[in-house]
Amino acid sequence: MPFENPPENSTPKTGLKRAIAFGRKYIDYRMGIYGAVVMASIVFYINFRGTQDYSGATTAALKQGTYTFFFGGFIMRLSERIAVEIRKKAIALILACVVPSLLSLVLTFGLHNLKGTPKPLQSTIPTAVFVIPATAVWGYLKRKKAEAKIHKTD
User: Fold this and answer.
1) Which of 65, 70, 81, 114 is 20 to 30 Å apart from 31, CA to CA?
2) Mind listing the pLDDT tens digit for each residue in 128-152?
3) CA 67, CA 140: separation in Å to the nearest integer?
4) Which pTM does this prediction carry?
5) Tens of pLDDT along 15-38?
6) Which residues neighbour 36 within 8 Å (Cβ) at sequence distance 6 or greater?
């Protein structure tokens, strides 16, 4: 896959490649792209349907898409790291869902309260609908994969 983490011993040569490799530690680019497309489409629909204003709806969708690419990718990477790095499984899985979800909801609502989003609360609801189950499932899958890898090496 093009967005897989590079081998630890590989050092990218150009500044852009180094920046992308650095970002990969903190952002799941693949999940960021998926989330950006879905969330921008939903936010555009909500705001256009409510106002019939292409400009406001497009502004809201672009903000949401850009934000979700970077921050949604970060949230998914955070969920993964919490799920894998905390020793006690139950605590790890709960925190891998709760911490990234709360952070995402607070920041999404804050973003949409800035100028340009006609329906900020309604634009935040899709985040709540998606982020809670997404981080729960993602954390579980990443924990399961990490445990399988540990048991395989035993």
Assistant:
1) 114
2) 898 999 999 999 999 999 999 887 7
3) 24
4) 0.76
5) 888 888 888 889 999 999 999 999
6) 64, 65, 66, 68, 69, 72
